[in-house]
Design goal:
435 residues; alpha/beta; two-stranded parallel sheet; 12 helices; binds uridine-5'-diphosphate-4-deoxy-4-fluoro-alpha-D-galactose
């Protein structure tokens, strides 16, 4: 079996792991090819194969949160930790799997503090999604009902420099995760996708009907490819219940100031950069272009409070359980499968999670000035390669189907972000774990 736990390990070990994995993929393709030819003649994937080839039934989500255990991959990260808070607040049991490559276990201590959870309702496994043995352990030791899958590398620029790492971790890792999940009879999955799949959007506000366009970097490609992979999972086995959530620009932090975004090195994204200028760690905000066809010439994005975003995931679980919405396939790419006998959904649901409001770079800088109570120096620089002028969501589908709507405005996002940044100027790195 391939195992990829130690990415910082010696090169020979990496090569060996890669070779073993490659051999395995070749073998599987050979087997998969044979199966695919046979299955062509058996239409309807639910009916595909004989009895012995059928996989285990899916776990039921037709029950209350306290009886439901959710595996959160990447649960120690920015969006993951906030989602853990919302899940625990709703009464779910949570198992986090995170390799801590871009996150800190301190975040989970703080999730416990915020939610007042000091029992086994929150469990943690330090492991990569590429580690099949660790995944088997997680599924064996916990009765996982659903997965919210955040784990993945996410830096656009870095992905251009390190495509192999991005495809391995994000794509291969998700394949390993889904295979383990399927083998343990759990086919309920919420995937952390991105508005990046729309590329240069054909229209604004962007609805889920907006056609996908080629991503301009490997990070974006992994999101787009994984949307396809997860859709194909359902096509191949009608028991899968998949939701693809396309995030716009998540910012902000929990109102306690205990958890927030903690980027390594110099931030690439606007908000953490502005926050570090405000706290005195960086000198000046670079505004990437002021000649776009927007109100003030700077780029416009749909910033969404991370707590709103986290609640969108909880709403998605309700939807998957058939507790809200109609389940109609009313946008491009969605598939309304035949619901299970217990009323839970099957198929592929796609939802934008944004606010529906665009804010320019200067809007953000000025909102942050109001939050921190001082003027922030900024300097206009050339446009950043690959940026688009404007991008914001239509969120009607999430409102109508999930019963979810973003509540917090840009001022609130900046106020919460400032509280986190000013209380934790060095993120989690110097924070003592909370007893
Ligand atoms: N910007 C600056 N200065 C900076 C950083 C950014 O002016 O130092 C500008 C950008 O040019 C853009 C806006 O601020 O106009 C937002 O840029 P971000 O880097 O914060 O975010 P992006 O919209 O480029 O990308 C983000 C995520 C992606 C995700 C995408 C989805 O980083 O992962 O939103 O829409 F795919």
């Amino acid at each position: 079996m391939y195992k990829f736990t130690d990415r910082r390990g010696a090169i020979p070990r990496l090569l060996f792991a890669t070779r073993v994995a490659f051999d395995e993929i070749i073998q599987r393709y050979a087997i998969a090819g044979t199966i695919a030819v046979r299955e062509k003649f058996v239409r309807g994937a639910a009916a595909a194969g004989n009895e012995s080839e059928k996989t285990m039934a899916n776990k039921s989500l037709a029950k209350g949160p306290s009886d439901t255990c959710v595996l959160v991959t990447g649960g120690a990260g920015f969006i993951g930790s906030h989602t853990c808070v919302e899940l625990l607040n709703r009464g779910y049991r949570v198992v986090v799997l995170d390799d801590l490559s871009n996150s800190s276990e301190v975040a989970l201590d703080r999730v416990r503090t915020i939610t007042g959870i000091d029992d086994d309702r929150l469990a943690f496994y330090e492991a990569s999604i590429l580690d099949r043995e660790a995944l088997d352990r997680v599924f064996t030791e916990n009765d996982i009902d659903a997965i919210i899958h955040f784990a993945g590398f996410k830096a656009v620029g870095e992905s251009v420099q390190k495509p192999l790492e991005y495809y391995w971790n994000n794509v291969a890792g998700t394949l390993v995760l889904c295979e383990a999940a399927r083998d343990h009879g759990c086919k309920n999955l919420v995937f952390s996708s991105s508005a990046t799949v729309y590329g240069e959007p054909e229209f604004i506000p962007i609805t889920e009907d907006c056609p996908k366009h080629d991503a301009t970097n490997p990070y974006g490609q992994t999101k787009s490819m994984l949307e396809q992979v997860l859709t194909d999972l359902y096509v191949g086995d009608n028991e899968w219940n998949v939701v693809l959530l396309r995030y716009f620009n998540p910012i902000g932090a929990h109102e306690s100031g205990l958890i927030g975004e903690d980027p390594k090195g110099i931030p690439n994204n606007l908000l953490p950069y502005v926050a570090q200028v405000a706290v005195g760690k960086l000198a000046c905000v670079g505004v990437f272009g002021d000649d776009y066809p927007t109100s003030d010439g700077t780029g416009v994005r749909d910033y969404i409070h991370v707590v709103d975003l986290a609640r969108g995931h909880v709403a998605a679980l309700d939807w998957m359980g058939g507790k809200v919405g109609t389940g109609a396939a009313n946008t491009l790419g969605t598939i309304a499968g035949e619901p299970a006998d217990d009323g839970t959904r099957r198929g592929v649901g796609i939802f934008n999670l944004g606010t529906g409001t665009g804010s320019s770079v200067l809007d953000v800088v000025h909102a942050f000035e109001r939050a921190c109570g001082k003027e922030l120096p900024y300097e206009v620089k050339p446009r950043r390669a690959g940026d688009i002028a404007e991008n914001y969501a239509a969120c009607d589908k999430a409102r109508d189907e999930l019963g979810w709507i973003a509540e917090y405005d840009l001022d609130r996002m900046c106020a919460d972000s400032w509280r986190w940044q000013s209380q934790n100027p060095n993120g989690y790195s110097t924070a003592a774990p909370i007893a």
